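Run log, item B.
One chain of 303 residues. Sequence copied directly from the ordering sheet:
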Amino acid sequence: MVDGTKNAYETAFVVLASSAALTAGLDGAAALLQEALEVVDRHFWSSADGLSADAASRDFSVLDDYRGANANMHLTEAYLAAADALADPSYRERALGIATRLIDGHARRHGWRLPEHYDLHWQPLLEHHRDEPRHPRQPYGVTPGHLLEWSRLLVSLEHGLASPPAWLLPAAVALFDRGTADGWDEARGGLVYTVGHDGQPRVDDRLHWVAAEGIGAAATLAQRTGADRFDAWYRRLWDWSERHLVDRTDGGWHHEVDEQGRPATRTWDGKPDVYHPLQATLAGRLPLVGSFARGIAEGRLRG
């Protein structure tokens, strides 16, 4: 059965991919990027909220009332890439608006445990999917991997803005500290998938993308701050990933392992993406950049 739902999450990745393609000089990328940006503006973006809706019917005639932080996080990353590809700083300002509302607003008010789920009026739905904690797109509770991903994005945003607000770097550090404090299993290693709003683990599977985003955030903060503790986290996360996630038989990374570090399929099956592990390998080899694609295009990737 074909699901005809149109999602802002997937559209954000079209913006990101076409921005990277345009930066690389690929034919057709500019037209695709403009089309994807127009779809966001016409069907998902709310100027009143300064945020994106999450899902629409196939013909875009009906918007779902659910609002999510995840789609807006990926739209933040996509806007940073679009700003680089188009040399248009207005997209960085739009990314800053998203971050201000979600991170300087909601995350700060909740002790840096960003609520993932919201109603139509952007009020947090803290009990959303409590009875379905392994929901593949909207799991219950707080996702430490997203706190780490936001941490990296805030530093990239700060780097790209002509006059960045002072709260960006302290917030990036606070998100990293919360994500690692709540997510890292001191006894067995690895970052858990989700925690409750009290910080206690709810789904303790280790998903590949969570470790990858931890690596990227640690590398980014190590460069931005020069603090040894972020370099130590970078090495700790890479060492754990090398032991438990890198698939030396079939290639790529295992997308999920259990609390003992053994390949599992309790939340996800197969290997649906390489995006997170690829960026993990790039984060420590590039200087601070607005987007990975721009850094590579400028020849700044270190060996």
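Observations after the first pass:
- The chain is about 50% helix and 5% strand.
- The CA atoms of residues 144 and 179 lie 4 Å apart.
Flagged for discussion on Thursday.
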